[in-house]
Amino acid sequence: MNMALKIKNKQKGLSLVEMMVALVISLFLSAGLFTMFSMSSSNVTTTSQFNQLQENGRIALAIMERDISQLGFMGDITGTDFVVGTNTVLEVPTSGFIDCVGAGLNNATLPNTQPAHFRRLWGYESGVGGSSLSCLAGVTVNKNTDVLQMKRFIGPNVANGNSDAIFAATNSSEVAFFVGANPVAALTNPRIWEYQHHVYYIADDAAGTPVLRRITLTNKGMNNFEQLVEGIENVRFLYGFDNDGDSTPDRYIPESQVTSLMWDNESFQRLVAIKVFVLVRSVQNDPSYTNETTYQLGDKQIQPIKDNFRRKVMSTTVVLENPVLIRS
């Protein structure tokens, strides 16, 4: 009898109630672990995307700021209008040359014979007002994004030119644009600089990601298309004009309010600074996130897009390095 009781006690296990309690506890523990893992994964995605937004925006602003700050630098002839046949000589081969013509009488890649201001700067909002640049005729520029063109010499001056780019030999009263080692035109005590024409714009890549892009000048014209920074969805430029001659901007206005006289520096208002705003978008979407934020891009408001991409507005103010020369 005692032996049978011992065997029966050894075979005793969990009851059905105990097993159900254990399963419920395990279920709660598993749910907690899954929630913690999900939250951790979401935080990693959010942090990674915000870091990406910050870095891409910083790079885009740094590229444009460095370029814009030296706007209008034309070596020894800075501040003087270029008119072919008067103070300007063109020795650039025209065969196969891709020009980039904008609004204004003298606003192509190279100066022309018009006795008008050679525009070093000009901009417009894509898809608004009908403005355009001829070198972007075959490019699908994102609508309602700003386009900016600028022209300048790249320093320091060099001993000789070469056949890969366009150069300019200058003294205080003349300029000769040429390709090769030296110009044919005989200038007195010239210095040689590389000439550059840049056009900034935004267009999507094949995957639909917006990219800040730039066209740069080669010896064959505006035919070098560069992809600079991905994820730059919009850009806005506000132009700072000095109204009282103290070289400090009294107001910042969009391109739609900049008159032809102001572009040509022929009125009492002079351009001395430019504000640059970029709307940066994450490259990858996050299905767990819905963007319902309204963004202020300078004077322009971007309504909620309600997609799964994070965004961030970044900006900088660029003071022109030679405002007095440009003003004069």
From TrEMBL:
Pfam families: N_methyl (PF07963), PilW (PF16074). InterPro entries: N_methyl_site (IPR012902), PilW (IPR032092). Coiled coil: none annotated. One of its GO terms (biological process) is type IV pilus assembly. Signal peptide: none annotated. This is Prepilin-type cleavage/methylation-like protein. It comes from Shewanella loihica (strain ATCC BAA-1088 / PV-4).
